[in-house]
Amino acid sequence: MRVTLPHSLGKDEVRRRMHKHADEIGSFFPAGLAKVTTGWPSEDRMSIMAEVMGQSIPGGVEVRDNEVVIEMDLPLLLSVMKGPLEAAVKKEAGRLLAP
Description:
5-stranded antiparallel sheet, alpha+beta
């Protein structure tokens, strides 16, 4: 699954906002459904690991000059939910870029 969010904030500001809001990623899922951990393996990449319904979903967020790209590797069991998950990420991910 891949979702792209355009921005005009500059990389430094995007990184600052994402660091501020990274702990909110778990709330993108219905209450109690997911346990999410994040990390920053590089300056422009945040790693994400979501545990949903006993399934591990690795992913990440890449900060680019004019966009943020969110990718998640959905396991086969959850691939049938790709459409609704993409819609939820598009709806909620804007909060990562909120001031």
